[in-house]
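Database export, one record per block. Field names are fixed; values are copied verbatim from the stored entry.
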Amino acid sequence: MELFEQAGNTEGQPLAYRMRPRTIDEFFGQDHIVGPGRLLRRMIQADQLSSIIFYGPPGTGKTTLARVIANTTSSAFVTMNAVLSGVKDLRKAIEEAKERKSLRGRRTILFVDEVHRWNKAQQDALLPWVENGTVVLVGATTQNPYFEVISALVSRSRIFQLKPLGQGELRHVAKAALADPQRGYGGYNVHIDENALEHLIAVAGGDARSLLNALELAVETTPPRFPPAAKGEEIRITLEIAEESIQRKALLYDKEGDYHFDTISAFIKSLRGSDPDAAFYWMARMVHSGEDPHFIFRRMLILAAEDVGLADPQALAVVEAAAAAFDRVGMPEGRFHLAQAALYLATAPKSNTTLGFFDALDAVQKETTGEIPSHLKDPSRDKDGFGHGEGYLYPHAYRDHWIAQAYLPDNLRGRIFYNPSESGYEGKVRETIQRRREAQLAAWDSGAQEEILTYSPADKGRDRWLARISSTKSEVLAEIRDTLFTRIQLQRHNRVLVLKADNGLLLWEALRAVPEGGVWGIVDKASSKEILEHVCAAIPESERPILLAGGLPSALAELSAGRVRFETLIGTNVFLREPRRGRVIEQAGELLAPGGVLALAETVPRHGQRLSGYLEDSAADAALLGRFKTAEEAVYSGREKAVGAGAHDAMAAGAAGAASLTDWDEQDLAAQIEASGFRSVTVELRYFEESRVITEKDIQNWFDAAAGSYYGLTMAQYLETGEIDAITALLAATLAGKPLRWKKPVAFLTARR
């Protein structure tokens, strides 16, 4: 039967049928395939159609385009519905097409609606006649032809995808039906409320047929009886009538009101709470009510960074990809991309660590603005004048492209804004981040733990930090830590006391090693305790180390008064600046449980680096260099030169207290530990090398006897003022600002109680 053979008689036909465009110029929507200059439009207008397949959801114009083709072409146009027709009907149509072609030379266009409903055998039966040109196939399907139509037919056809109509196009369809006096309701006084029309458009889901069917039902069932008896009698379509007509209740949902915000809030909280079922439900409520999918994607993009973050760095990429795919596909298929994005977020591990940025903003607003560290400043303008950029360590020049150095202002030392969670990707990088922070904090504080050479009044300037930090500082500290821990066998349930925990170097490693035990730490300064407590803020309170501030003797006495005894006491440079070694060793023994271990890594000043060694190849006077060497050896041997009464008496008195800090070596310390009742004392001396940068200010501080420097006091006993000036000038010219290989002797001692 010829398709649309009764098209001229529309009486009694549904509105959607009556309003179908009759020519390509009347067709609206689908501009991407039938717009001016498009291939399909040119093919129809030129009547040079080849086999094509229309693919798209219901109501997007597939059959309408077939009608346009039927009205335009000079070819015979035959229609079949794959649901109602079989191979027998197809054979009959093919025979007629062959006869038509052979007798009259007329082509046949075969329109197969719902072509995906034919099975493979039925589609195979059509294939040879399409291939030899007996028929030109025009197929229509709501299913993806690449999956539902045999590949042989697909390869011989052009595929045109029709998309759901946009709201503007649907509005045009409705307005045209209300205005057309022959095929629509232009001859009647029909008034539709704006909210009723919006509802019909929103719930039609891009389906023009659904919209026209609903509009027809609304008009023809609304009093007065249709057609109205009185000419000009108004038929008014309200929201309630529109809801009844389309058989879908409009949800109480206002895009600008409470329900809009409450529903999106419920959706976001369901995603954050990892409940995919609730997330699907609330998103369905929004989609059903016509919420703009772009708004939903926008909120999911925010959540991907705010609530998933680095627990799954791919979350943001997945949602962004889904949003881009939605823009290409549109509704209704785009709902799959909405669903996939929501499902990914609901099931992804969660982390809100990006909120740390707002803590940083709060610090900027509320706290004193710290000076940008000099080594981080731009050196391009005033490096020579102010030294900006001097001392910056280029991370890519070091192993693993990282080196410990300060990046925060001094007043924010140790401040943490980003606390990586244990979820997903963050859980993998958490330990690396923590270890690097520990190394930076330890390197920052390492000046307090250096050899006796630097024992002088504290230098609070930024140059002090730059002098301490170096290419191998953090590596040496980490190696000392690791060597110390390998010498002891910590059990997960052990109790550990870290002596001299100010820099946190051993504290964090102990926390990792004894998760079911406990960690205590003694710090010299209240400021160090405050910094460490801030770093520990991210750890559950029950798992945090217990910190005591004050000198070793007083803190150890406080612990002795309690009932806790430790399986391990561990420390680095515990005795470097502690003149009461005997008392501290006895107190440590009292705190150890039977069989407990004392493990120490002590820098031994007596074996330390000598400044005079750097002047061997310099232009120094041999006699002066010899006296300098003698004086320097006196620093580390504890010898005092006999001096008479007068100015040198005061210096000698000041030096006497510090001499006991340098007049011992690893064997002396081991003997003292053994004498205090410890057993199985072992000692190993190892030398490490650091790359160190010395400043002129360092040299001045070391030789400053007036400020109480033990090194300077000893130099003043052995050298004249002019000689000291000559030595300091030579050291400044030879060493200042240059990377030096610095020898660091460390004694590793272990003993059992």
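Remark 1: The longest helix spans residues 424-445.
Remark 2: Confidence is low (pLDDT under 50) at residues 1-8, 446-452, 454-471, 642-657.
End of record.
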